[in-house]
């Protein structure tokens, strides 16, 4: 039997004991002014909360039996000889409380429950927040909606609590040391603002509906004045007035200057009716204004950030000036576009802005992307040992209707299409002979719309690979998109290609197998033929499409060429 007890002893010794969590003492402060009818009920409710260690009622100069009722209910009572205001009452309780966590609860709540009190304090006990404030359903809230929220949204847009003036809140005592207690009704919003600016975590908890006496209009007027004074005071203290007034003005003037720069550059490049000298003058004046006020923004911002608590200052700065910041970014990007297009050579400064082309296919033209942005492309010379290749950006290939490994015939010479080199997404590398034939030079900037006219007249062989069949279509590049016909090629009941291009009325077009003509079609008439054991059909479709592909007529070669064995070799 002894072995059993020995075994139990070893098991118990092997269990890792956990160090108990440090006990957190909780005090509840109840500010009260002439609340003899409700203060005892509030105290009784708080006493039923198991983790509350201390209840302090601050009797703020009451002239009724508030003190007696509070003592009778079992609370510690601290008296003010005169009415000093809610904020001073909270501060007095805070100073006297010997605890880790303090909860502040009004003395006039008729339907307070222990669950409501627990909801206020528990998030702090569990380490979820350093301060909790409440939101609840009630009939009033006029000061919140008409004064507090509009001003907070203006000066402190990062604060977005539903009820910033809730009245009931809790906090760790150590964080309250960092906060300035207002002496009046501004205390609630003051704590919320201080905590936000100082980066103290706040949680808003819902405690349901509460019932208390509605304040008369005269009291609401006083409360509104005190709330407004607190918010304005904090806005001035934390640099929000400077941020909106001085810095906001400087930012707006910076935008004016940058706008003048863009206006001047726009008139120089795109408005021929405006004299060059006027466009230059507008740009220079705008540049001076922009630089002057941007410097002032930087200096003022540095001074503000040095003097004020950091916290959420940057976040608030961005929220307040977000539209203007976006405007500045857009204007700077536009200006950088012009600067990026500047070239200095042999003592001559040349600015040649080039934009990309937005391509939108509104017809039935077969394409991988109905909307795309292409170009511009920079001409460069083909690298050594690539005299038979043209390296072309993928966007340019889409414009010309070709792909990698297609061939292009220029001045009787045939070149293979290849992809661009790494790091050169928009560089069009051409052999010297091709540059001469197309009349372009290195460093020329080519808009996507010009690509067709540059390559106009060249002959392209474009391949479609499907299973064991390779189909090659041959066409000449036309200088612009014109109305075209769409057709589908079907081999052995399998569609292997769909294309579109330009057919001339009355012309004949050869269809070949292994470069030997085996059939033909006239303009856009459907045709079919059989080659060995393959059944081939070419069907034209009634679509609305355009193309730059002018298919080869019979006098220039084969329109289509089939290789049924190429992919199986």
Number of strands: 25
**Percentage beta strand:** 25-35%
Low-confidence stretches: 12-20
Number of helices: 17
Instruction: Give the CA-based shape.
Output: elongated
User: How would a textbook summarize the main sheet?
Assistant: 11 strands, mixed
Cα-atom radius of gyration: 41 Å
Mean pLDDT comes to: 82
Instruction: Classify the secondary structure makeup into a structural class.
Output: alpha/beta
- Indicate the percent of residues in helices: 25-40%
Compute the separation of the termini in Å.
87 Å
Keywords:
seven-stranded mixed sheet; alpha/beta; eleven-stranded mixed sheet; 569 residues
Itemize the secondary structure elements and their pairings:
Elements: H1 2-14, E1 26-32, H2 39-47, E2 54-60, H3 66-72, E3 76-80, H4 86-96, E4 101-104, H5 114-125, E5 131-137, H6 142-155, E6 169-172, H7 173-176, H8 187-198, E7 202-209, H9 217-237, H10 240-244, H11 246-270, H12 276-307, H13 313-320, H14 322-340, E8 342-345, E9 348-351, E10 357-360, E11 371-374, E12 377-381, E13 389-391, H15 394-400, E14 407-410, E15 413-418, E16 427-430, H16 432-438, E17 445-446, H17 448-454, E18 459-466, E19 469-491, E20 494-501, E21 508-513, E22 516-522, E23 527-531, E24 534-551, E25 558-563
Parallel strand pairs: 1-2, 1-4, 2-3, 5-7, 12-16, 13-15, 21-25
Antiparallel strand pairs: 4-6, 5-6, 8-9, 10-11, 12-17, 14-15, 14-18, 18-19, 19-20, 19-24, 19-25, 21-22, 23-24
Helix pairs in contact: 6-9, 8-9, 11-12, 11-14
Verbal overview:
This protein is of the alpha/beta class and 569 residues long. Helices cover 37% and strands 29% of the residues. The chain has 17 helices and 25 strands. Strands 13, 14, 15, 18, 19, 20, 21, 22, 23, 24 and 25 form an 11-stranded mixed beta sheet that branches. A 7-stranded mixed beta sheet has the order 3-2-1-4-6-5-7, sandwiched between helices. The longest helix has 32 residues, at 276-307. The model is unreliable at 12-20 (pLDDT under 50).
